[in-house]
Amino acid sequence: MEPGTPIYVGENRSERVQIDVMRFDGETLCELQDIAIDSLSAQVGGSGVLWVNVTGVHDVEILRRIGEFFDIHPLTVEDIANTDQRPKFEDYPGYIFCVLNMIRYDKTANEIALEHLSIVVGKGYLISFQEEPGDVFDGVRERLRQSKGKLRTSGSDLCMYALMDAIVDGYFVAVETLGDGIEACEDNLFTQMDKVDLAQVHGYKREILDFRKSVWPLRDELSMLERSESELITKETRVYLRDVHDHVIQVIDMIDSYLGQLGNIHDTYLSMSSNRMNEIMKVLTTIATIFNPLTFIVGVYGMNFDNMPELHWAYGYALVWIVMIAVAAGLFILFKKSKWI
After folding, report:
1. Are residues 73 and 218 in the same domain?
2. Is residue 245 located within the same domain as residue 323?
3. How far is it, in rounded angstroms, from Cα 32 to Cα 221?
4. What is the domain-level CATH number for residue 304?
5. pLDDT computed for residue 337 by the predictor
6. Do 295 and 246 share a domain, yes or no?
7. Are residues 255 and 308 both part of a single domain?
8. Range(s) of the domain holding residue 293
9. What's 220's domain CATH number?
10. In principle, which of 26, 34, 92, 277 could form an S-S bond with 153, CB 3.0–4.6 Å?
11. Could you tell me the pTM of the whole model?
């Protein structure tokens, strides 16, 4: 197909795309939920800042029409529909485009849930595209409704920062939840080793690596945003973006720390399992070594030869038992003094 042809590559979805709109300035706030795509064109332009939140990127026709309303380049629309796109920042004439992952911990499935999120920021508007219902932006919406802070009186660039900040705050919650599980595995390693599931440790490692793959490029993306010469990003917003950049670095440090911790758990588990197996083998070898001479004695007197004088002794049976007990006791004392057992 031609470059710029939007193709949805995510999971098959049949839900209707939902479009929510918030227009705000220092004095007023207008909020519309689940509007039709035909009604969106009437929202383009006007005073204040327009925030359009699109839930569902599987309907490429709606994406294409939104691109026409806001004069978004077809290559950007293509990236919005591509849910496998890595986090990145692009500066287009008239708008900037950011891709990042919204990460939440799914307690029901006990795993990390990654969701592709795209943000288009132009003069007086911001459009966010997410895959499915539910996000981490409730705090931002509430601040807009209650007119708290500078969000209502600033431009679309500060609203972009607020969304990114909410996403990165969600990273902390997710990575700390994973960290609690990893620390529980580490505690069980030294107290209840039988409860340590190596498959669970590998599952944590896989999730941490997926987490790292999503967060690491965001560091470069925020650095490019800070250094961008786009007029859409004010000097004040760059300071706030620097703070988000610092938070991302903290998350990366936590991820690297947990990766090292998982590696130590894996190595320690294998080492302790090997030591326990060695202890078991040492006990079995000791028992076998003690019984080897006893088996030899019993084997000798189990031979059916007539010319064995001990076979006709009245106390031969008792004497053999005394010899065997003495040999076993002597070997046991020898092993004990040598600290082999």
Report:
1. yes
2. no
3. 31
4. 1.20.58
5. 83
6. no
7. no
8. 283-337
9. 3.30.460.20
10. 26
11. 0.79
Distance CA 330, CA 336 (A): 10
Q: Are 72 and 102 in the same domain?
A: yes
Please report, as a single letter, which amino acid is at residue 188: N
For residue 210, tell me if it sits in a domain: yes
Q: What's the total number of domains in the chain?
A: 2
With b meaning 16 or more CB within 10 Å and e meaning fewer, what string describes 82-110? bbebebebeeeeebbbbbbbbbbbeeeee
Answer whether 138's CB lies under 8 Å from 131's CB.
Answer: no
Residues with Cβ within 8 Å of 190's Cβ and at least 6 positions away in sequence, in order, are none
Q: Is 316 exposed, middle or buried (0-12, 13-18, 19+ CB in 10 A)?
A: middle
Q: H or E segment at 199?
A: helix 198-227
Amino acid at 328: A
Domain assignment of residue 172, yes or no:
yes
Residue 152 covered by a domain = yes
Beta strands in the chain (DSSP E): 18-24, 29-32, 49-55, 88-92, 95-106, 111-122, 125-130
Q: In terms of DSSP bridges, do strands 88-92 and 95-106 run parallel, antiparallel, or are they unpaired?
A: antiparallel
**Local confidence pLDDT in tens for the 341 residues of the chain:** 777 788 888 778 778 899 999 999 888 889 999 999 988 888 887 788 999 999 999 999 999 999 999 999 999 999 999 988 889 999 999 999 999 999 887 767 667 788 899 999 999 999 999 998 888 899 999 999 988 778 888 889 999 999 999 999 999 988 888 888 888 888 877 777 666 677 788 888 888 888 888 888 999 899 998 888 889 999 999 999 999 999 999 999 999 999 888 888 888 878 877 888 888 888 888 888 888 888 888 888 788 777 777 777 778 888 888 888 998 898 888 888 877 77
- Taking each continuous run of H as one helix and of E as one strand, the counts in the chain are 8, 7
Residue 111 lies in a domain: yes
- The type of residue at 125 is Y
* Closest listed residue to residue 204, CA positions, set 186, 184, 178: 178
Tell me which residue has tokens 């690596």: 209
